Amino acid sequence: MRRITRIATVGVASAALALTATACGGKKSTDAGSSDSTTAASTAAIAYDIGGRGDQSFNDAAYAGAEKAQADLKVKVKEAEPTEGESDADKVQRLTELARSGANPVIGVGFAYAPAIKKVAPKFPKTTFGIIDDTSVTGANVANMVFNEEQGSYLAGVAAAKASKTGKVGFIGGVEVPLIKKFEAGYVQGVKDTNPKAEVLTQYLSQPPNFEGFAKPDLGKAAAQGQIAKGADVVYAAAGLAGSGSIEAASTAGKWAIGVDSDQYNQAGLAKYKDKILTSVTKDVSDAVFNLIKSVKDGKPQTGEVRYGLDKDGVGLADSNPQYKSMTELIAAVEKAKADIIAGKVKVKTAP
To answer: What is the pLDDT of residue 11?
Structure first.
């Protein structure tokens, strides 16, 4: 289904949309506010990544930060959705329109916005541009919000190794790019450090420049089904919207799924499967977005690299599932691994 680009100003009431979005990302565009009289000091903008808002994962985490800014800082937020198969030129146009509208900051959700921000940011020197998961593009008005995904994934590997009864676990990456390889590297290391005899089945859903591996739940579902058929009883997917398919497959088969980016146990669109979502590797994208918006509103905009790691709870493991909380040996192993990483006793790889 082709996604139609839309730019809308939303109010706090739009939270209902996030709660009713399905795991397949279906949703309607809406304008719950008015931008006629907004100024740079009162309006922020978010340009979503592949999958858009309603992905129950990465984009929804960014939206949560914007929603918090609306409630706490009384700012309005403009949202712009991606289109299927779009080019960098489309992203340039989207960011340009948001900047021209007076929004500040303008946030690109995902590394795919790097080329566009590189072109647009210099043209709007008084506007702060934020980009999540990228440090390649820099500038006096660019904030790079990045995370130690490998650290959170290491903890997921520890949990998976402890929860597995077959000694086989799976990793599904949406697209084989350096960012997702960080997830893989940490996960595999965590599994192997916990159980050297364990086997990790790894699969990527697409190769760049094809990014549909972040957007197609059916691909994630098929990949998880294949890994489960080979004996995996825990499957971790770092695949955006496509990860919802892997969660469905694991739940249907009575196996464990590990979510990503958001606490997927608490995502309404995944409620049917939540009992089998063991945990999720969380990235505090929400706080990153909120903090950037607040910095601009306070007149002291963040710029340069802003990093979130285990030491600042910028990444971690969710413990919402009561079954997870009951696994005392698993929790003890995860807590020890977390302490060792923070203390520098464990160095987590950033590439397989």
So the answer is: 35
Q: Which helix (H) or strand (E) holds 107?
A: strand 106-108
In Å, what is the CA distance from 248 to each residue of 211, 258, 264, 273, 275? Answer: 21, 11, 12, 6, 11
Dig out the tokens for 77 from the structure.
């937020």
* 76: CB partners within 8 A, 6+ apart: 9, 10, 11, 33, 35, 38, 42, 43, 44, 70
The structure's pTM equals: 0.84
Alpha-carbon distance of 250 to 228, in angstroms, equals 8
pLDDT attached to residue 30 = 31
How many whole angstroms separate alpha carbon 80 and alpha carbon 97?
Answer: 10
Q: Residue 316 carries which side chain, given as an amino acid letter?
A: G
- Give the neighbor-by-neighbor strand order of the sheet with 43-47: 7-10, 76-80, 43-47, 106-108, 129-132, 142-147, 304-308
Residue whose pair of structure tokens reads 């082709």 in the numeric block? 2
Give Cα 125 distance to the centre of its chain: 28
Please state at what angle helix 328-343 crosses helix 178-194, rounded to 10 degrees: 120
pLDDT of residue 57: 83
Q: Give the separation between CA 62 and CA 47, rounded to whole angstroms.
A: 10
Q: Which range has the worst mean pLDDT, 15-19, 121-125, 254-258, 275-279? A: 15-19
Backbone angle region of 304, left / alpha / beta, with phi > 0 → left and psi within -120 to 50 → alpha: left
DSSP letter string over 279-310? EEEEE-HHHHHHHHHHHHHTT----EEEEE-G
- Residue 25 dihedral angles phi and psi, to the nearest 5°: 85, 10
Dump pLDDT digits (tens) for 50-60. 888 988 888 99
